C-alpha cells in the first residue's frame, strides 16, 4: 500500500508541483522572518554614523546632531548608496552642515598664522580629536578628519554639496576645480557624480510640497470628481444594455470614415511631394533622425502610411461583409452582459475587495523589502599601511580595537580598524539580493492570486446567470457570495498554481530588465539584439499566459475542474471559435477603452471648470485636473473590468452551450432568446 501511494504521488506531476509550492512558501516564510528579525527600517529612515548610532537620538552622544556628514563624499558614487547607508567612508553626525570651502592643509596653514579656522574645522572631525599639528598623511590615514569640507545643505538629513549654476556652469562656492588635502586635482563634476540625482530630488521635494498644498486646497473638488466618475461609470454600463448596438455601429462607422479621410490626406500629401526635389530619397538612406519632419518630406513615408491605412480599411470592410453574423453575435453578447450585470449589481463593487487585497500585498512587499534593505550592519576591517600585518582584512571592533592583540602586535604597527561596508558575512547577508528577488516573486504571486480570485468569483456569478433556465427567476440568491465561497473552498489551489506560473514569467521579465541596465554601457550590438528579442518573447509569453489564465479561471468556476484541465479545455474551446474570439475581443476592448477615455476626459474637464474658481488658491491647476482624470480612468477601469469579465464568461458559456446542446427538447439551448434568434438554424454549423 505504501509503495502504491508513493508511485501515485510520483506520477501525479500536479501534486508534485503543489508540494514544491508549499516548500517554497515555507522557505520564503523563514527568509521573511529572518528579514524581520535582522532588519531595522530606522537605518533607511534615519541616518547612522560609522559606529551604528542614529543621528539625533536622545540619550546618546549624537543628541542635538541630527545631520549625517561624510568624510569623503567622492566615495559615494551613487545616490542609492547614500539612501541605503552603504558609502565606504567615515560618517559622523553633526549639528549643521559646513558652509565654507577649505581643505585640511589650508586649515593647518591658517592655524599656524593665528587664525581660528581649527575651532570650526574640528566640528567635522572625530569626537575628541584636538591636534591640528598632526601631519596630514597621518590624519587621513587614521581618518581623524575629512580631507576637505565643501559648502553643503541638508537633504534627507545628510550633508550634500550645495550646487549652484553660474553662467550655465555648475559650481560649488563659485568654484569648478579645486585640490584636496593631498593636492590631488578635483572638479565639481566629481562631486556631482557622487551625488548624482540628488539635486533633482530636491526639485522633486519642492514640487511635492506644492502638490500637497494643491491637494489641501482642492480636495473637495477632487472627491466630487471621483464620485462623478463612479456614477458615470455605473450609468454607462447600465445603458450599454440599450445602446450597445448603437455605440458599436457608430464607432465602426466613425473608424471607417476616419480611415477614409486618412487615405485621402496621405494621397494628397504624396501628390504634392511628387514634383518636389529631394522627396524621392528612401527612408533607409536618411537613417535615424530625431526630427520627424524630415521623414514627412519623403514620398516613401506617405506611401507607407497610405498602404497601412488602406489595408486597415479593407480589413474592416471585409470583416463587416463576411463576418457580419459574428458582429451581431458580439453586439448581442454585450447587451446580454449588461443585462447580467443589471441582475447581479453586487459584482460592480467586488473590485473594492480586490483593492483591499492588493493594498495588503503592496504593504507586505514594501515593509519586507525595507527590512531586507536595512538588514546590514556596519562591518569594519583591519588595514595596515605596509600590508605586513597578518590580520589585514579581518573583521574588528573599532571601540575595542585599541585594546586588542592586533594593535599591539609588532607586525601591525599603525594598523587601523576602518569602516569597510554595510552588510554582513553570514550566508543570510551574502544572499540578500536573492532574498529581495524572492520577496518580489512572492509579491507578484500574491497580486496575481488576488486578481485571479476576483476573476474566478465574478465568472462563477455570471455563469450562474447564463445557465439559469428562466432568467432572472432561476438565478441563485446571493450569486456573488456563493461563487466567492466556492472559490475559496474548492479552487484556491488552482488559482495559486496559475498565479505562480504568471509570477515566474514576470520575475524573469524584471530580471531581464535588470540585466539590460547592466549591459547598457557596453557597446555590443549582439548583446542588445539578444536582450531585445528575449524581452519581446517574454512580453508575448506573459500576455498569452495572462489571457489563458483568465479563461482557465472561467472554466474552473463553471465546472470545478483543476487548473491544467480547465486551461486545456478553454484553449481548445477558443480555438474552435477563433473567429468569434477575434471579433468579440476587438469590439469589446475598443468599446470599453472608448468609455474609459470618455469618462476620464469628461470628469477631468468638469473638474477643471470648477477649479477655475479656485485659481487664486490652487498653484497647479493642471496637476489636480490630471489627478482626477487618472482617478476617473482607474475607477472606470475597475467597473469595466467587471463588465469585460462578464462578456468573456458569457462567451465561453455560449460556445460551450452550442457544443453541448442542439436546441431540441432533450437538450435545449440555455442562451437568451435574443442570441438564439440571431443564430437561427445555422448556429450549429458556425
Structure description:
With 686 residues, this protein is mainly α. The chain has 3 domains: 67-200, no CATH class; 208-368 and 433-684, no CATH class; 377-423, no CATH class. It is 63% helix and 7% strand. It is built from 24 helices and 12 strands. It has helices at 2-11, 13-38, 42-45, 79-83, 104-112, 117-121, 136-142, 188-194, 198-272, 283-286, 293-296, 299-322, 324-343, 351-373, 405-408, 427-430, 432-466, 479-490, 492-519, 525-559, 563-575, 578-611, 621-660, 673-679, and strands at residues 67-70, 91-94, 102-103, 148-149, 152-155, 158-161, 164-166, 169-171, 177-179, 185-187, 377-383, 416-423. Strand 7 (164-166) and strand 8 form a beta hairpin. Helix 9 (198-272) packs across helix 22, helix 13 packs across helix 22 (578-611) and helix 13 packs antiparallel against helix 24 (673-679). Mean pLDDT is 75; it is low at 1-17, 78-85, 197-205, 609-621 and 680-686.
Strand order of the largest sheet: 1-2
Q: What is the terminal separation in angstroms? A: 51 Å
What would you call the structural class?
mainly alpha
Count structural domains. Answer: 3
Largest sheet: 2 strands, antiparallel
Strand content: 5-15%
Computed over alpha carbons, the radius of gyration is 34 Å
Summed up, the helix count is 24
- What spatial form do the alpha-carbon principal axes imply? elongated
Roughly how much helix do the residues carry, as a percent range?
55-70%
Amino acid at each position: 500500500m505504501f509503495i502504491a501511494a508513493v508511485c501515485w504521488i510520483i506520477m501525479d506531476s500536479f501534486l508534485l508541483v503543489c508540494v514544491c509550492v508549499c516548500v517554497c512558501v515555507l522557505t520564503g516564510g523563514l527568509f521573511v522572518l529572518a528579514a524581520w528579525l535582522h532588519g531595522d527600517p530606522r537605518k533607511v529612515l534615519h541616518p547612522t554614523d560609522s559606529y551604528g548610532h542614529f543621528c539625533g537620538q536622545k540619550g546618546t552622544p549624537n543628541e542635538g546632531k541630527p545631520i549625517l556628514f561624510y568624510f569623503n563624499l567622492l566615495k559615494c558614487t551613487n545616490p542609492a548608496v547614500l539612501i541605503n547607508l552603504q558609502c565606504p567612508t567615515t560618517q559622523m553626525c553633526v549639528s549643521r552642515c559646513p558652509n565654507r570651502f577649505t581643505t585640511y592643509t589650508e586649515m593647518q596653514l591658517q592655524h599656524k598664522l593665528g587664525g581660528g579656522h581649527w575651532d570650526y574645522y574640528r566640528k567635522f572631525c572625530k569626537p575628541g580629536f584636538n591636534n591640528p599639528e598632526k601631519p596630514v598623511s597621518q590624519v587621513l590615514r587614521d581618518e581623524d578628519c575629512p580631507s576637505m569640507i565643501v559648502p553643503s545643505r541638508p537633504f534627507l538629513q545628510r550633508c550634500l554639496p550645495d550646487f549652484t549654476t553660474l553662467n550655465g556652469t555648475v559650481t560649488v562656492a563659485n568654484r569648478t576645480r579645486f585640490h584636496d588635502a593631498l593636492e590631488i586635482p578635483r572638479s565639481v563634476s566629481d562631486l556631482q557624480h557622487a551625488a548624482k540625482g540628488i539635486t533633482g530630488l530636491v526639485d522633486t521635494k519642492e514640487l511635492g510640497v506644492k502638490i500637497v498644498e494643491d491637494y489641501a486646497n482642492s480636495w473637495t473638488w477632487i472627491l466630487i470628481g471621483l464620485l462623478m466618475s463612479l456614477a458615470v461609470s455605473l450609468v454607462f454600463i447600465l445603458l450599454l444594455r440599450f445602446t450597445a448596438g448603437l455605440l458599436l455601429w457608430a464607432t465602426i462607422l466613425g473608424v471607417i470614415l476616419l480611415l477614409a479621410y486618412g487615405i485621402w490626406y496621405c494621397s494628397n500629401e504624396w501628390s504634392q511631394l511628387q514634383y518636389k526635389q529631394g522627396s524621392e530619397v528612401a527612408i533607409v538612406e536618411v537613417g535615424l533622425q530625431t526630427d520627424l519632419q524630415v521623414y514627412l518630406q519623403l514620398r516613401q513615408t506617405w506611401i507607407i502610411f497610405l498602404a497601412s491605412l488602406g489595408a486597415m480599411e479593407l480589413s474592416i470592410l471585409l470583416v463587416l461583409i463576411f463576418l457580419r453574423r459574428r458582429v451581431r453575435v458580439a453586439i448581442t453578447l454585450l447587451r446580454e452582459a449588461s443585462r447580467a450585470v443589471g441582475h447581479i449589481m453586487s459584482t460592480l463593487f467586488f473590485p473594492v475587495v480586490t483593492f483591499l487585497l492588493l493594498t495588503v500585498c503592496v504593504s507586505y512587499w514594501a515593509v519586507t523589502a525595507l527590512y531586507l534593505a536595512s538588514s546590514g550592519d556596519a562591518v569594519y576591517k583591519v588595514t595596515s599601511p605596509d600590508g605586513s600585518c597578518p590580520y589585514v582584512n579581518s573583521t574588528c571592533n573599532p571601540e575595542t580595537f585599541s585594546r586588542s592583540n592586533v594593535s599591539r602586535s609588532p607586525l601591525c604597527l599603525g594598523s587601523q580598524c576602518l569602516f569597510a561596508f554595510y552588510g554582513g558575512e553570514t550566508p543570510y547577508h551574502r544572499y540578500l539580493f536573492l532574498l529581495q528577488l524572492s520577496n518580489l516573486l512572492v509579491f507578484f504571486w500574491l497580486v496575481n492570486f488576488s486578481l485571479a480570485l476576483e476573476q474566478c468569483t465574478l465568472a462563477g456569478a455570471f455563469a450562474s446567470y447564463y445557465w439559469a433556465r428562466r432568467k432572472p427567476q432561476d438565478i441563485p440568491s446571493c450569486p456573488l457570495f456563493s461563487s466567492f465561497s466556492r472559490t475559496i473552498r474548492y479552487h484556491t489551489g488552482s488559482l495559486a498554481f496559475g498565479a505562480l506560473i504568471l509570477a515566474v514569467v514576470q520575475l524573469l521579465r524584471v530580471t531581464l530588465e535588470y540585466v539590460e541596465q547592466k549591459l547598457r554601457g557596453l557597446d555590443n550590438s549582439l548583446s542588445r539584439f539578444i536582450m531585445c528579442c528575449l524581452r519581446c518573447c517574454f512580453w508575448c509569453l506573459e500576455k498569452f499566459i495572462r489571457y489563458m489564465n483568465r479563461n482557465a479561471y472561467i472554466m474552473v468556476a463553471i465546472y470545478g475542474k483543476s487548473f491544467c484541465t480547465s486551461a486545456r479545455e478553454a484553449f481548445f474551446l477558443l480555438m474552435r471559435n477563433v473567429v468569434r474570439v477575434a471579433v468579440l475581443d476587438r469590439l469589446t476592448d475598443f468599446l470599453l477603452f472608448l468609455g474609459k477615455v470618455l469618462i476620464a476626459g469628461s470628469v477631468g474637464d468638469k473638474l477643471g471648470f470648477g477649479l477655475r474658481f479656485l485659481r487664486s488658491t490652487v498653484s497647479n491647476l493642471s496637476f489636480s485636473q490630471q489627478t482626477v482624470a487618472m482617478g476617473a480612468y482607474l475607477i472606470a477601469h475597475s467597473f469595466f473590468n467587471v463588465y469585460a469579465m462578464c462578456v468573456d464568461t458569457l462567451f465561453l458559456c455560449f460556445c460551450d452551450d452550442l457544443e453541448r446542446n442542439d436546441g431540441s427538447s432533450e437538450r435545449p439551448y440555455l442562451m437568451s432568446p435574443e442570441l438564439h434568434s440571431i443564430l437561427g438554424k445555422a448556429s450549429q454549423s458556425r
